[in-house]
Each structure stands twice: as C-alpha cells, then as structure tokens.
Amino acid sequence: MAQTEPYLRSAEAARRFGVSGKALRVYERYGLVRAERTAAGWRVYGPEQIRRLHQVIALKSFGFSLRRIADLLSGDLADLAAFLELHEQLLRQEATRVAEALRLLSAARAKLAHQGGLSSDELMDLTKETAMTDPRTNDVSAAYQAIAAKHFSPADQATLDANGYGGMHQPDADWGTLHEEATRLMTIGDPHSPQAIDLARRWMGKVFEATGGDPALTRKMKMVARETHQQPAFAAASPSANALMDFVAQAYGAAIAAGVMSNPAEG
C-alpha cells in the first residue's frame, strides 16, 4: 500500500475526529467510509478516508441520519468542493443567528441596568429570538436550507422570494390548514373524491403561486420537499408527509383527468 501521506489507525483517527472507535465501525457498516487494511489486518485511514470522515461527521452534526448521509454523499455532495461550500453556507447562517442573538442580549442587559427591569413582552420577544441559536431548534431550518441550497439556483431562489415563499422551515397558516385537510382525506382514502380533487386544486395552486407556474422550478420544489421530509427534524413532526404528497399527487391527477386543472409542471 503506497503511502504518500500518513495513514492513521482506528484509535488515532477516532481521537483526531473526537468520535469513538465504535462510531467508525458503524460508519463503515453503513457504507459511509471504507478503511484500508494493513498486512496484519489493522484498519487504517488515508487521505481519501479522512476526507470522507470529515464529510460524514459534519453532516451528522447538522442532524442528518446516517442513511440520509449515505444518499447525500452518493450524489451531488460527493464532490469535496461542493460539500465544503454547503458546510460554509450553513455555518455562516448559524454565525449570523448567533451574532444577532448576542446583540439582542447585550441590548437587553444594557436596558436592564439602565431601567432596572424588562417588560413581559420584552422578555417573551427576547426568549423567542435568542432561542433560535439552540442547535435543536435550528434542526428544521438547517435541514431545509441544506437541501434547498443543493437544488435551487440563485435565480430559482429569487423567484421564490419574489413570490413570497419563505421556505418549508417558515410557519405558514395556509399550508398548515391544507396539511390538516389532506391528512383527514387521506385517512378516508379516496383521492378521486370531489373533496380530494378540490384539495389538490388549492394545494397545487399554492405551489404554482410560489413557483410562478414554472415547470422546472415546480419539479425542483417537489424534490426539495421530499428530501426535506426525510430529515429527522421534519420526520419527527410529520412522519407521513411524503405519503401525504403522494395522496395529493393522485388527487391532482384526478383533477387533471376531470378537466378541473391543467398541469404546468409537465410543460
């Protein structure tokens, strides 16, 4: 085994990355990294394995499951430059949130020192704004932003922004109502019913409002939604979200067949 750079044994690699030897074996079991072997059978990690471990551990820190990490690293993020760009984007977003939270806390401390107290409204606002720096509450935003950055071009994002679409990580009462209705209708189980067709008309109308009816952007939005729903933070909140999308898609097909809607996404 030619060695142009030092190879690390399992214990050394684990120590350098701050993980356990067991974690390295789990990553190997999921196919995320393949250690090489010495003549004596010891696992060793060279430059390619080190690069891969960096990607795996960073993605895991963003809340991705090991299965999802395997999918990501077999696709667009297999390229190191693309991965590092995504990693940098996510860290910059987190740094911006932390900087704003620190500014708000500093201002609150100054006001407390000057006035001797803070109002209930001020305390509630402060809690709401600074809690966003907790990584657990950022899982949803980080998961969506990572996937959106992979699929949406700057022009795509500009279109969505111009049409008032804030992203899946932003609260939206209209989408909440549609999801509740879709869940109820899916339980009944008839995507061809008049109620399901009407739901599909309103659901897809909201999608086309965000994408401007652009077929390519509509397809990208669907891909982003499906991938995002698989992330731990989203799956915990809505474990059947993709099944819900499948139901709406069937109802949408019924709406098209009935002449209730056209299909710009097929354009």
TrEMBL record:
Transcription listed as a keyword: yes
Domain of life of the organism encoding this protein: Bacteria
Keyword Transcription included in the entry's annotation: yes
All copies of domain HTH merR-type, residue ranges: 7-75
SMART domains: HTH_MERR (SM00422)
Keywords attached to this entry: DNA-binding, Repressor, Transcription, Transcription regulation
PROSITE patterns in alphabetical order: HTH_MERR_2
InterPro entries reported in the protein's UniProt record: DNA-bd_dom_put_sf (IPR009061), MerR-type_HTH_dom (IPR000551), MerR_fam (IPR047057)
Protein's name according to its UniProt entry: MerR family transcriptional regulator
